[in-house]
Amino acid sequence: MTIEFIPAAGASLTTTNVLTGAGRVKWLVREESQVPADNGWRIFSDIDTEEYLADSSNMKIVDFNALCEIEPALIGIWDLPVGSDLQIVDDGAGIQIVDTATGQPLPPEALYSP
To answer: Per the domain annotation, does 94 fall within a domain?
Structure first.
């Protein structure tokens, strides 16, 4: 049973590498929702390649809360706007969520807190 970190969080598209633990959550992109249950988040792993992503069988629709169980840092990004393009950076002392375009960490006040 999935823990509900965020009520009615919706579903996201992710790779099987994330779901199986073969890769760590790395890239976080929010697109326009395609259907009402879709929250727009697309979650990719550190080992996903263009070739891997080109095969649609490597992508799965998953409850966002289930992804938060895999990587709790995802709780903080849930309400960020469409167009967000982020990455999780582990500097050895801990993880940070970084804006991909600027390379700057998101300030704590920008993150969702249930």
So the answer is: yes
